[in-house]
Design a protein that fits this description.
single chain, 1 helix, 51 residues
Length: 51
């Protein structure tokens, strides 16, 4: 009986972890650099102006 509860808690934790990971990947609040694995370097883009 206690083994089933422990296995159920582990399974629920694993499912929650996966759901959270997928939610973060598709979140619109992300910076757009999720596929770079932290190696992205965003540089400042300069737009030329007409003088």
């Amino acid at each position: 009986m206690i083994e089933n509860i422990i296995i159920g808690l582990i399974f629920a934790g694993a499912v929650a972890y996966l759901v959270n990971t997928v939610r973060k990947q598709f979140s619109s609040k992300s910076s757009g650099c999720a596929s770079c694995a932290g190696n992205c370097q965003v540089s400042k883009i300069e737009i030329p102006t007409k003088d």
